[in-house]
Amino acid sequence: MNGSAEKSVVDITYFSDILCVWAYISQIRVDELKSKVGDKININYRFITIFGCTENRIGKGWKDRGGYTGFGIHVIGSCQPYPHVEVNPEIWKKDPPASSAPCHLFLKALQNMENNGDISRDPLADNDNKTPFEAFCWRIRCAFFRENQNISKLSTLFEVAESMKLPINLIEEQINNGKAFASLCADNEMRETNRLDGSPTYLLNEGRQKLYGNVGYRIIEANIDELLQRPEDMASWC
Q: Tens digit of pLDDT for each residue in 118-148?
């Protein structure tokens, strides 16, 4: 029967903000998905700029709870139940990032380059099976959460890119010609169209299934497995 065929690949659109602690914590789940069912999923990375203006979100939003220092204590506390992540004790206290937007812009430049064939889509052997784009994304997350670097500075982002031997001239070209900006705006439009609440969010089944926040691995896996196993013309039970 034609309607009983299983799906061969499940598309996952994964939205996150580089400065979001829950996305930092959740990276291990994305890695596990790639390890277990990597040949059956296609992850499309998108960026949702929750920390577009940290002065508004933290400086003013957390004014009565200690401002940046109070938020840093909150981030450290949020990570304590998760031994797989490291957090710098000075996080958000000294030279905090003004915005996650520069990181996202830089990442969209790299993503465009990957789509154009300017950088490889193949996993790097020494980076936990991550592609150069994925490895850079994780590297700058670690630069912030572990090393307390100000990753809103383009100088920091270019320094990391140079250390990874990524083509700086092509990154600059993507930023200068506006294409990286256009891709970042497309992510924002997709966020609004799908009415996404925040970071991280997994979007599956053409937007019909949304998994938002600190969602456990088995829940994510169950949703993917249901989509893989169900007949094409039947609704998912998840």
A: 999 998 877 678 999 999 999 999 999 999 9
Give the pLDDT confidence score for residue 234 in this predicted structure: 54
Tokens of 224: 């993917």
Write the DSSP string, the chain: -GGGPPPS-EEEEEEE-TT-HHHHHHHHHHHHHHHHHGGGEEEEEEE--TTS-HIIIIIITTGGGTHHHHHHHHHHHHHTT-TT----TTTTTSS--S-SHHHHHHHHHHHHHHHHTSS--SPPTTTTT--HHHHHHHHHHHHHHTT---TTSHHHHHHHHHHTT--HHHHHHHHHTSHHHHHHHHHHHHHHHTT--SSSEEEEGGGTEEEESS--HHHHHHHHHHHHHS-TTS----
* Side chain identity at residue 104, one-letter code: H
Looking at the chain, the whole-number percentage of residues with pLDDT higher than 90 is 80
Q: How many residues are there in the chain?
A: 238
Domains of the chain, first to last: 7-229 (3.40.30.10)
Tell me if the pTM is above 0.70. Answer: yes
Sign of the Cα torsion 137, 102, 60, 144 reads positive
Q: Which tokens hold the place of 219?
A: 């829940």
State the distance between the two ends of the chain, measured CA to CA, in whole angstroms. 23
The single-letter code of the amino acid at 101 is A
User: By C-alpha distance, which of 198, 141, 196 is closest to 19?
Assistant: 141
